[in-house]
Write a structure and sequence with these properties.
Elements (H helix, E strand, L loop, with lengths): L9 E3 L10 H15 L4 E5 L7 H12 L3 H5 L16 E3 L11 E5 L35 H26 L17 E7 L18 E4 L5 E6 L5 E4 L5 E3 L7 E5 L8 E4 L4 E8 L6 E4 L2 E6 H9 L10 H10 L7
Parallel strand pairs: 1-2
Antiparallel strand pairs: 2-10, 3-4, 4-5, 5-12, 6-11, 7-10, 7-12, 8-9, 8-11, 13-14
Helix pairs in contact: 1-4, 2-4
Length: about 325
Amino acid sequence: MATTFSSLPIVDLSILSSPSPSSHSLQDLSRKLSDVFTTTGFAYLTNAPLSFSHGQVFALAGDFFRLDTAEKLSVAKRTFIRRNKNNYRGYFPTQPDQLDNLKEGFEIGSVQAPRQRELVGRHQQQLNLTEPNVWPDEYAFPAGREQLETLHQELQFLSTTLLSLLAIALGKPSDHFASYLTNSLSTLRLLHYPPQPTIRQTTTATEPKLCCTPHTDSGLLTLLHQDPSGGLEVLNAKEQWVAAPYVPGSIVVNIGISWRTGSSSRTDGMGRFSVPFFFEPGEECVVRSVDGGEGIVYGEYVRRKMDTWVEYQDVPESRADAGAHRGVVLEVC
């Protein structure tokens, strides 16, 4: 993969809004996507066929994070509030002791939760990746549930379309990867990065203060709504961090680790929102390279990776409550 890029390409998806796009147009789009994912691994998608504007997406995020602390903690993961039953879906507060993960978030899965796998023996202690979504009180978050469920469905459909186009570019039938999506675990995540104290500049150059550690995404694709404050950076093959500034109306797409990409990303924005959608296969899906070979069971892979995620480390409730209080500041620096 040639990834010595200095900027991200832009791919126009307007053809997908056509009621009857020509096969030539779809072939052309599939080639463009294939080129993106075999070179940079990242791109801006414009004119995506979604019914939500950027403003509406971030209004939804703002409505959730403006909820009072008690309401947000009522849907917090059990890591933070022991009396709650949800472990995988729900809210997580900022964590004051994790200075490179200064974010709070809320996660939902499919409207119809995938079929739950029965856990037996040693697996009974594992997180249930197919648990149902949890929601704030409807009076506190009016219409929020319905709109977020619709956004999840639309992003799942868009991601499925992109996957079909990639299959075509690989010389495969458009439904080649359809089996991957049985009981898909795709996650829609609302994120808020509260403003941080200004760092006094010195004569010694310093690294940006990170609100999210450098990482690669799991899953197949990630579709990211980032707000105008930007902050996203992408690592190329020369170990150079390339800025991916906000492009109005665009969605940043990148291939996940399931495609074995060599790129990674980090965020150093402050006082901002982002809304990533993680397009994921089913828990029992065996992800293999197109030309065969040994694969990985996606659920097992995700659980191994989750061991490194701060949202799943044990946190005393007093610290979780303090983190939630820190996270209610919504001004953008």
